[in-house]
Fold each of these.
Amino acid sequence: DAGVIQSPRHEVTEMGQEVTLRCKPISGHDYLFWYRQTMMRGLELLIYFNNNVPIDDSGMPEDRFSAKMPNASFSTLKIQPSEPRDSAVYFCASSFGIGQETQYFGPGTRLLVL
Amino acid sequence: GEDVEQSLFLSVREGDSSVINCTYTDSSSTYLYWYKQEPGAGLQLLTYIFSNMDMKQDQRLTVLLNKKDKHLSLRIADTQTGDSAIYFCAENFSGGYQKVTFGTGTKLQVIP
């Protein structure tokens, strides 16, 4: 398997624009996680899905953020409108089950909002 | 709520042992993990320990768990320059929905 695939790898946009980050989890994995990493706040869990259903979105910062998982092989994280403080590296991870099961991380999308 | 804390930085000489420490608050944690993040990459699981264990050894890695003090450590024997990375401690919070909470990360610098 190719591992968790994220696109784009880098995104530069202007404040107010819509940003869509994409993730393809490892085939067969039933959990998908979206994380945000910044120097100030470290690694934060934004939302996670089980079998395409959002389970916990308490980490989503505000209504400007939304995430969907229309099928088992694809998820999006959308920011609308984007703000400079959204600049961060966004990671997608997937796992088969939870608990001791390893979360496999994608390479991340580095977002810069000017 | 759950909280996981680590020191931010550790510097060691090549060949020495590294010890990275972590404290957590959730006494109901079931699993505790150590992840490694190399520059420009995502996190990679190094090892994990079940909460009813005190120690786990895996080649150069030794994990020690003190449940009473809620303290977790990762010892890397014979540290190599390739071990330079950020190391994250994480706990599995078992209250209700399960999710993993990550620490702030410790940046390990190995000096040749």
Note: The longest strand of chain B covers residues 85-93.
Amino acid sequence: DGGITQSPKYLFRKEGQNVTLSCEQNLNHDAMYWYRQDPGQGLRLIYYSQIVNDFQKGDIAEGYSVSREKKESFPLTVTSAQKNPTAFYLCASSFREDNSPLHFGNGTRLTVT
Amino acid sequence: KNQVEQSPQSLIILEGKNCTLQCNYTVSPFSNLRWYKQDTGRGPVSLTIMTFSENTKSNGRYTATLDADTKQSSLHITASQLSDSASYICVVSPGGSARQLTFGSGTQLTVLP
């Protein structure tokens, strides 16, 4: 079955440590996205990528970094510079970076103490 | 500033009853409006996508309506089931780019037996 796989489902880290969240898709989608979801708020865009080896900052990119070396993979690194990293992180993909429907993974819940 | 407001924030209904969720937006220009269902701890799943010219769109027991003049949408759920318990998220696209999506904070629906 085609879909998006995020791992791990739960992640715990100490403050000051970088952590990388995995996102893999086998939908042959060109565009991929990372969102952050906090209680009582709408999803906010962190980074997006339209094609391999290219990505752009979203609305809340500070303290995060990404790479897009393969079409299928779009990992997100939460760095120690991110002031409030505890959140639910969602990866999504779409056929193109336009009005194509978004397909979401099942998220990674990151807790930093 | 583009905004999407959903009401109510939370709703509790009995199994078998109908309910209607509301979405008001101030996004401009307008390209399309999407409804997603998000189960607890999972990623959102697309229910409908409606463009400017569509007034009503159904997906099984889910029916979405759109009034682009008043910038309002509703999601009607018929004969609710326990599995309908989830957060329902309204998303508006102002143009042809997925990176511009504006997400509402969701309505948390609980269906009781």
Note: Chain A has a mean pLDDT of 94.
Amino acid sequence: EVVLTQSPATLSLSPGERATLSCRASQSVTSTFLGWYQQKPGQAPRLLIYGASSRATGTPDRFSGSGSGTDFTLTISRLEAEDFAVYYCQQYETSHWTFGQGTKVEMK
Amino acid sequence: QLQLQESGPGLVKPSETLSLTCSVSGVSISSTSYYWGWVRQPPGKGLEWIGSIYFSGTTYYNPSFKSPVTISVDTSRNHFSLQLSSVTAADTAVYFCVRHRTVTSPLRLWGQGTLVTVSA
């Protein structure tokens, strides 16, 4: 099983600031199979990034993904009010999908 | 518009079987080559993939999943189902149904989720 560890657990930032979220895998993940999701309270997760760096339909360009191997990053260049949420990374390379435990981006 | 909608009992007793259905609208399950699956989220916790089924009926499950699980598809009713047997309080969660293109595709389409509580 590929264990994904996200850090930090919570990120306290103000609107307009830059957010950098980390996802570290216990073994190498092909970047093609790494995704990021955003979840707001009471809602289903929404795919933001797939293939480590490709934006899903409707994802604003202030969101960007990068990384390879065991280290992946989601960056929000300038936080807007609607971006305060929980973010999960997921690997879907193996037939045993796993998610990270999530990073909460909260308003400072 | 393509939508997924979960339904089923919101309360299940320990040791009994949890049964949920995901109704698909806007497309016929049998007419498209997609996988249909389930993901759950215990209150205040992260996401756990349970398993998925291909439109033809082929299934694959999370090998780390502790509870006995069965996913089935009913193309005549255009829905797919989840059964977890011998549930415990640890199975209390919001259950989401999802759709994905292949076994190595991200989850682009999600249902809104349904909370199932396991309690006597």
Note: The radius of gyration of chain B is 13 Å.
Amino acid sequence: EVQLVESGGGVVQPGGSLRLSCAASGFTFSDHYMDWVRQAPGKGLDWIGRIRNKANKYTTEYAASVKGRFTVSRDDSVNSLYLQMNSLKIEDTAVYYCVRVYGSDWSTHYFDYWGQGTLVTVSS
Amino acid sequence: DIQLTQSPSFLSASVGDRVTITCRASQGINNYLAWYQQKVDKAPKLLIYTASSLQSGVPSRFSGSGSGTEFTLTISCLQPEDFAVYYCQQLNSYPLTFGGGTKVELK
């Protein structure tokens, strides 16, 4: 059974940093691209970043709203995905979801599994 | 960035109704479109990928269609468990973007 379990959320002051983790199990983690998606309270879904697999050199993509502040990384040896968030702003307050990307071709970039999410609150 | 416009944003329907949600893209997306369902306080769930392919385990009353810039999600016979928010997502280019969502509520 595929499982994605996020952790690391909490309350942080504006300008602060936080690191989210996502523990993956039930599939060959190293084969898959992995993404982060967030959802502000009462709002829609917002894609924030991607890390490709080793075969694609672990390259990354980011939304403009987080580029330069957030970093997606992974450790295939422990089946984990990370999101380092720096210079946090009040508008970064959201539930953050770890998601598995089904395949490597553009036609297969859909999100077939989602974690339960972890809440990040940026507040003074 | 590719903008996705969903309509309607809110839909009131009864059990047994046929429901159609539209997603319009600001430019062509090669049918690289997915639909997700999100229930209250739950993570989204994949329903449809590449515009019309049904994800494994999803009931056949859900279907997707469309091409180019206009796509639809249809629920043929609404069930009580289908009351939720539905999102489209384009997977054609970065940044990946979602539609604003359609909330399906009980009439």
Note: Chain B touches chain A at residues 30-32, 34, 36, 38, 43-46, 49-50, 55, 87, 89, 91-92, 94-101 (CB under 8 Å).
